[in-house]
Design brief:
The structure holds 2 protein chains of 2 kinds. By secondary structure, chain A is an alpha/beta fold. Chain A is built from 8 helices and 11 strands. The longest helix of chain A is centred in the last third of the chain and has 18 residues. By secondary structure, chain B is an alpha+beta fold. Chain B folds into 2 domains: 202 residues, no CATH class; 204 residues, no CATH class. In chain B, a hairpin with a 4-residue loop joins strand 2 and strand 3. The radius of gyration of chain B is 31 Å and the shape is elongated. The chains are: A alpha/beta, B alpha+beta.
Chain lengths: 252, 419
């Protein structure tokens, strides 16, 4: 049974309806996201691509309820994020969503292990269970033995792996990852993507990546290309080959 | 809350990120705490001394009378009424109370005192000198001679003796209306001259042995107007008075057992003033502390906007973010309390055990019918440091509320983008 089949019958993981996000007003207004309507089913492995400033990060932030849309609606698991209180959104993120940020964003006063287990702790998972889960994943992604290091004592790649571990531990229903492999070498990227693919395949976790990385896009089964806040192209792909339209003109 | 230790550890580590700023803030708070503890302790000590001096000189801390005695002060309104009271049994019962230091009987009257050259009106006070000396201090004001030891001896107020132009060893005659309607008169020898510092007392007081006054006023040996009681702690007076009132009823019927807080209300007002000053100092220092903590925590939250955005994105609820910031302030407050205790404890202990007598500089002052000596000392009390510590920690935590509310209002997306 595929991950999509596992999720069949339930609400889509994410739906956006005529979604707009505008910064500023009047003549200086910038439309970061314009009239975006997409549906992402549970268990999808989706890459959002497009040039810098195309609205990828803003769209991910809107989906995660980190910012309010100017117009339109975002539904996660069928629930309208815009209609939720701050507390309800926090609960939604805690229960359903894992975030991977562009700039690691680890908490500098916590060790690698404490950073990774942070969301589990917020969920009330016992210390023993947390430690067990973190240790297993750390071993798998090459962070074994680094548990007690603070972020400042880790390389960029190691920090990003901790950030990914933090996002995927506890298997959230949806992982929003903003350039998760930007600071990783090929080997580390592949290891992380392997973990994510396993979670996607075996547990039906939905992944939405903002990425410029062809390695990520090759693994994605659906690619949505944004340009100037619009969805320019939205297509599923079967093979590991990349269609030419996914690459930014500047990169091609 | 689960993992409370984790949150305190985060607070501790966050404070450690800017050690200099944390140390400076903690030292400022610690000094504030130390100042409050020290000044409140000194003021409490001074207040206690005022209360002690105001009650110890003549009034005592508890007064037991016939309920009808005040305010007319009729001679026959003795304790126990017409039947009087077994004085030794009454005193024995009172002295058996664990909070009581001692008790002394008194008898009062009014009369005329005449020397060889002139006469004056006098307030007669019959005492048992040995007992009185253990309850009040006014006998310590004897300037010449001694308290009345034998029969037919009187101690005169300094001003009264001057007006009578008499001195120690000379004879005076006391004439007083007696309880039976007759006029009692007796010859007495002046055993001493006393100065209490209370002008109306020094100008009229005639102190004699209670047996002599009972005889002069035609009263029996069971007739006393008052029993004056001294206590280990003056502040226990209302409670002890209630207890004694219940315990003594069977002995002499109804009795008026009054704590000093009732018969010296001006001292209560003064104690209230001291307490008010203590609160004022506490509030001034803690308001300053609140601004210090608020400033530090506000800086910290501004610097950590991105981190607050991250924890919001990870699903931390607003209440928990508030708790995290306030937890940091809690750790800061606790740090300040420990520092403040280290600063103030040696000074407080020193002033408890080695009070500094400022009398050579400031002299003795009459204040509220008490002879007050300026002694710099700290009243031993757990209330002050505990109250101050709780106050400081609560202030620190509450002062962090505004920064904490700012933290939950951090716009996550903008902060993550570095805007």
């Amino acid at each position: 049974m595929t991950s999509k089949e596992m999720a069949a019958g339930s609400s889509p993981a994410v739906e956006t309806h005529e979604l707009w996000k505008t910064f500023g007003e009047g003549e200086t207004a910038v439309h970061a996201v314009q009239d975006v309507s997409v549906t992402i089913e549970s268990g999808e492995f989706v890459a959002l691509c497009g040039p810098s400033g195309s609205g990828k990060t803003t769209l991910v932030n809107l989906i995660g309820g980190l910012t309010d849309p100017t117009r339109g609606r975002v539904l996660v698991d069928g629930r309208d994020v815009g209609a939720m209180s701050e507390r309800q959104r926090a609960q939604l993120r805690l229960d359903r969503i894992g975030f991977v940020f562009q700039a690691f964003n680890l908490l500098p006063v916590l060790t690698a292990l404490e950073n990774a287990e942070f969301p589990l702790m917020l969920r009330g998972v016992s210390r023993e269970d947390r430690r067990e889960e973190v240790s297993k994943l750390f071993e798998h992604i090459g962070l074994g033995g680094l548990e007690d290091r603070r972020p400042g004592a880790l390389s960029g790649g190691q920090q990003q792996r901790v950030a990914v571990a933090r996002a995927v531990l506890g298997a959230p229903a949806l992982v929003l990852a903003d350039e998760p492999t930007a600071n990783l070498d090929t080997q580390a990227s592949d290891a992380l993507l392997d973990v994510m693919e396993v979670l996607n395949r075996e547990r039906g976790v939905t992944f939405i990546f903002c990425t410029h990385d062809p390695r990520v896009m090759r693994r994605a089964r659906r690619i949505i290309r944004l340009v100037d806040g619009h969805v320019e192209r939205d297509a599923e792909k079967e093979s590991g080959d990349l269609p030419s339209w996914v690459l930014d003109p500047v990169e091609t | 809350m689960k993992d409370r230790g984790f949150w305190l550890r985060i607070g501790w580590r966050n404070l450690g990120r800017h050690r200099r700023r944390t140390v400076i803030t903690a030292i400022a708070l610690a000094w504030g705490f130390a100042a409050v503890v020290l000044f409140n302790g000194i003021l409490e000590g001074m207040g206690s001394d005022f209360i002690r001096s105001g009650t110890d000189l003549m009034a005592g801390q508890i007064r037991i009378q016939n309920p009808a005695y005040e305010p007319e002060r009729e001679l026959w309104d003795v304790i126990g009424g017409d039947a009087g009271v077994e004085v030794s049994e009454l005193l024995s019962r009172i002295r058996s109370d664990p909070d009581v230091v001692h008790a002394a009987p008194r008898l009062y009257g009014a009369g005329i005192i005449a020397s060889d050259s002139t006469s004056r009106g006098g307030l007669l006070m019959g005492i048992v000198p040995e007992a009185e000396a253990r309850v009040t201090h006014f006998l310590q004001g004897v300037l010449e001679g001694a308290p009345p030891e034998g029969a037919h001896e009187v101690l005169l107020g300094q001003e009264l003796a001057r007006q009578l132009r008499t001195s120690v060893g000379e004879d005076v005659v006391l004439v007083a209306p007696s309880a039976d309607g007759s006029l009692g008169n007796e010859l007495f020898r002046v055993s001493g001259i006393i100065r209490t510092g209370i002008p109306e007392v020094d100008a009229a007081q005639v102190v004699l042995h209670i047996d002599d006054l009972q005889f002069l006023l035609a009263l029996g040996t069971d007739d006393v107007h008052e029993v004056t009681v001294s206590l280990r702690n003056p502040w226990d007076a209302p409670e002890v008075a209630d207890r004694l009132s219940a315990e003594l009823t069977d002995l002499a019927g109804e009795m008026q057992v009054s704590p000093w807080t009732e018969f010296r209300p001006e001292l209560v007002e003064f104690a209230g003033l001291i307490s008010g000053m203590n609160w004022l100092i506490l509030i001034i220092v803690f308001v300053m502390a609140a601004f210090g903590v608020a400033n530090t925590m506000l800086m910290a939250t501004f610097e950590r906007r991105r981190e607050f955005a991250v924890v919001k994105a990870l699903g931390m609820k607003p209440g928990r973010i508030v708790a995290m910031v306030m937890g940091e302030a809690l750790v800061l407050g606790l740090l300040a309390v420990v520092g403040g205790a280290l600063i103030s404890l040696p000074l407080v202990l020193w002033l408890i055990h080695y009070p500094i007598d400022l009398t050579p500089i400031a002299g003795e002052q009459m204040f509220m019918d008490g002879l007050f000596r300026f002694v710099l000392r700290v009243e031993h009390s757990w209330d002050i440091p505990v109250r101050s510590a709780v106050g400081l920690v609560a202030t620190a935590v509450l002062a962090a509320l505004y920064p904490a509310l700012r933290a939950i209002r951090v716009p996550a997306a903008e902060a993550l983008a570095g805007r």
